[in-house]
């Protein structure tokens, strides 16, 4: 009954494999396609950043994978959602619930509202071992202390009895990370885990996530809007715009030579800590309303490469020609009619 | 706005005109709770000057007191002690014409354009409200013409005046907030996190707008943000705040390339860099969170997290001081060990 659900998967099975994920919200004003045909693969030990602005569909993607969108006005469909080889789309809600917190876990942005204010940290951490592993109260408490130590909470034997409000924001986020890694999941999804934190504390939490995924061999899907955060910890980056992935590449290649005009424009528009303080190359316009997407490529009204074909025909997410992809051990993909031109601009 | 516009801050004229804003040793504390006698020392002795046409950036983490300072600069809060003067007149007090004239001259741009714009008012009425309050437009035609002029100034079309805030994107709403702040032709704009609520692809537009407005109107800016790169981009001078005090202040280029205070050094090292090759850079990592302003440490407020801390730091508050003024402007740091001090 209390057998661990996550038996060892063959090491070549990806921790997460998503194929053709679509999420639609039904509102009074009609259907809103929030996620459109997303494919994702995250290997064990890999940290993939899913980068996008508000409304791009990145958080909705995360919630769909976790099975947290079971609501009457939300329609989720996918050809496949595999977590460590287990197919989630065919699973009953109860089975999926057992996987959550065990094989796959989620770290939220706001640690204070994600923790129960009337239970001690030890009780909340220990509950995981008691419910999922059938551990005794004493054993669960001992594991909770170990976990607090693992995520760098000083004096864990004493702090395990404290309540959430007795911890600082950074410490609370560490506790959430501890809960997320408690049962050594195959997949950890972190949804803007450092956005509410100060810069100095953000650096600590990013370092912690990076260390844990190496030590525990977890796959991490990091949802972020921050190019800097992605550059600091990601192995690979998938960029979302208007519900679709528009580009995916190893982090070094993406920042050195973006293959999609949106990525290129974003990189050009952010202010830097060094370099000249000249005018920022601002992107014209705003992200599109998901209910009123332009025809063809969703980025075309803001794109400086856009031509007639971009306004008529949606570009598919295709491998970048090897000659242009650069020295990458993995293939890169981009959804743009003018990828070659964009890549040449980076070189030139 | 044409994207070719230079946003390199124009050299701030530091002529005989003197500062537009002078802040002298302001303190502000709040009661920690309804039944509590403890007080949060939000701002704990800050002095600053703002020159005409200058942009002063203020960076700090949550609890550093930067927003409380902003509210005192525009007169929304009255300091417990110390003074905030606009061209020699206090901004928070003063009835009658003189007081109104002062408040008219120092305006504020808020972080969240959705909550700071009345959803039931048209853009016309939102922007015209300060004109009405200060009696700056006589007659409907003049009022309308002035609002259309202001919309043009911030890059919005004149025909948007009849619409309501919810019909605009985040970036457009922030432009409306800026147009409203500019309506009274202020000499000083105080901007509290003006771009942090905006999507990243829209931030650059608004950052460029500030630089453009300053060049065209000569307005002085106080630009408060937690994003170090944004602040560097717009500022002539930068002040770094920590627990209600200024840790370091100086010309932007100096503060960013030769930070003198260990907190500034740690802050710069912690900022994520959008450059994967920079991952392995050397950096000072701070332990723990900023202490609570309810119970700030003795001596130097930063000593609990500082890798340089010695006994003197736990007992003696370091003065904000620096070497003799150099041509780039004074660079000062509140650390016992900055600038090779003993």
Automatic annotation (TrEMBL), chain A:
Keyword Cell membrane appears in the UniProt entry: yes
GO cellular component: plasma membrane
Keyword check for Phosphoprotein: no
Matches recorded under Pfam families: ABC_tran, oligo_HPY
Membrane topology: Peripheral membrane protein
Cross-referenced Gene3D superfamilies: P-loop containing nucleotide triphosphate hydrolases
First-listed, main subcellular location of the protein, grouped into a coarse class: membrane
Subcellular location per the Swiss-Prot or TrEMBL entry: Cell membrane
GO molecular function: ATP binding; ATP hydrolysis activity
UniProt keyword list: ATP-binding, Cell membrane, Membrane, Nucleotide-binding, Transport
InterPro entries, alphabetized: AAA+_ATPase (IPR003593), ABC_Ni/Peptide_Import (IPR050388), ABC_transporter-like_ATP-bd (IPR003439), ABC_transporter-like_CS (IPR017871), Oligopep_ABC_C (IPR013563), P-loop_NTPase (IPR027417)
Domain of life of the native organism: Bacteria
GO biological process per UniProt: peptide transport
Domain (ABC transporter): residue spans on this chain: 18-267
UniProt family annotation: Belongs to the ABC transporter superfamily.
Protein's name in the database: Peptide/nickel transport system ATP-binding protein/oligopeptide transport system ATP-binding protein
Organism this protein belongs to: Allonocardiopsis opalescens
Highest classification ranks of the organism: Bacteria, Bacillati, Actinomycetota, Actinomycetes, Streptosporangiales
UniProtKB/TrEMBL annotation, chain B:
Highest rank taxon of the organism: Bacteria
Database matches in PROSITE patterns: ABC_TRANSPORTER_1, ABC_TRANSPORTER_2
Ranges for region Disordered: 1-20, 319-342
SMART domains registered for this protein in UniProt: AAA (SM00382)
Coiled coil: none
Gene Ontology molecular function: any one: ATP hydrolysis activity
Name assigned to this protein: Peptide/nickel transport system ATP-binding protein/oligopeptide transport system ATP-binding protein
Classification lineage: Bacteria, Bacillati, Actinomycetota, Actinomycetes, Streptosporangiales
């Amino acid at each position: 009954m209390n057998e661990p659900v996550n038996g060892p998967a063959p090491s070549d099975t990806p921790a997460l494999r998503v194929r053709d994920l679509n999420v639609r919200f039904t509102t009074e004003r009609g259907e809103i396609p929030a996620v459109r045909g997303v494919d994702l693969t995250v290997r064990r030990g890999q940290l993939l950043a899913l980068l996008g602005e508000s409304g791009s569909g990145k958080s909705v993607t995360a919630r769909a994978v976790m099975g947290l969108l079971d609501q009457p006005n939300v329609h989720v469909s996918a050809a496949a959602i595999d977590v460590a080889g287990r197919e989630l789309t065919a699973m009953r809600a109860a089975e999926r619930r057992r996987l959550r917190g065990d094989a796959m876990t989620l770290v939220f942005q706001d640690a204070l509202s994600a923790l129960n204010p009337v239970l001690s940290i030890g009780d909340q951490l220990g509950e995981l071992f008691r419910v999922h592993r059938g551990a005794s109260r004493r054993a669960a408490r001992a594991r909770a202390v170990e976990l607090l130590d693992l995520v760098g909470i000083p004096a864990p034997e004493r702090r395990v009895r404290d309540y959430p409000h007795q911890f600082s924001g950074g410490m609370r986020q560490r506790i959430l990370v501890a809960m997320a890694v408690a049962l050594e999941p195959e997949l950890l999804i972190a949804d803007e885990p450092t956005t509410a934190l100060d810069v100095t504390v953000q650096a600590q939490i990013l370092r912690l996530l990076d260390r844990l995924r190496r030590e525990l061999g977890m796959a991490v899907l990091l949802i972020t809007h921050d190019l800097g955060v992605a550059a600091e910890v990601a192995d690979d980056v998938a960029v979302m715009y208007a519900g679709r992935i528009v580009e995916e590449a190893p982090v070094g290649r993406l920042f050195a030579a973006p293959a999609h005009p949106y990525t290129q424009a974003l990189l050009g528009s952010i202010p830097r800590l060094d370099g000249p303080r000249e005018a920022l190359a601002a992107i014209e316009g705003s992200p599109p309303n998901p209910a009123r997407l332009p025809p063809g490529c969703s980025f075309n009204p803001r794109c400086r490469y856009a031509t007639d074909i971009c306004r008529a025909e949606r570009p598919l997410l295709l491998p970048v020609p090897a000659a242009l992809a650069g020295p990458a051990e993995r293939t890169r993909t981009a959804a743009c009619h003018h990828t070659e031109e964009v890549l040449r601009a980076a070189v030139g | 706005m044409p994207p070719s516009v230079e946003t390199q801050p124009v050299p701030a004229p530091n002529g005989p005109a003197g500062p537009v804003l002078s802040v002298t040793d302001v303190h502000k504390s709040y009661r920690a709770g309804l039944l509590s006698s403890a007080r949060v020392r939000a701002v704990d002795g800050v002095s600053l000057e703002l020159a005409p046409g200058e942009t002063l950036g203020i960076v700090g983490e949550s609890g550093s007191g930067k927003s409380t300072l902003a509210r005192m600069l525009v007169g929304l809060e009255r300091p417990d002690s110390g003074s905030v003067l606009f061209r020699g007149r206090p901004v928070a007090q003063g009835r009658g014409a003189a007081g109104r004239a002062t408040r008219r001259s120092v305006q504020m741009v808020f972080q969240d354009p959705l909550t700071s714009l009345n959803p039931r008012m048209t853009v016309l009425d939102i922007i015209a409200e300060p004109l009405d309050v200060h009696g700056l437009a006589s007659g409907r035609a003049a009022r309308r013409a002035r609002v259309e002029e202001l919309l043009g100034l911030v890059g919005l079309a004149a025909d948007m005046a009849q619409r309501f805030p919810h019909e605009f994107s985040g970036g457009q709403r922030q432009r409306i907030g800026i147009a409203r702040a500019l309506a009274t032709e202020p000499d000083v704009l105080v901007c509290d996190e003006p771009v942090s609520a905006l999507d990243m692809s829209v931030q650059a537009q608004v950052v460029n707008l500030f630089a453009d407005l300053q060049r065209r109107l000569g307005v002085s800016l106080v630009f408060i943000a937690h994003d170090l790169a944004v602040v560097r981009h717009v500022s002539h001078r930068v002040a770094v705040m920590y627990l209600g005090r200024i840790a370091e202040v100086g010309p932007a280029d100096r503060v960013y390339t030769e930070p003198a205070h260990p907190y500034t050094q740690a802050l710069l090292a912690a900022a994520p860099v959008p450059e994967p090759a920079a991952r392995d850079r050397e950096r000072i990592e701070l332990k723990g969170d900023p202490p609570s302003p309810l119970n700030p440490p003795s001596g130097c407020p930063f000593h609990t997290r500082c890798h340089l801390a010695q006994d003197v730091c736990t007992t003696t508050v370091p003065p904000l001081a620096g070497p003799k003024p150099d041509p780039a402007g004074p660079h000062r740091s509140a650390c016992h060990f900055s600038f090779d001090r003993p």
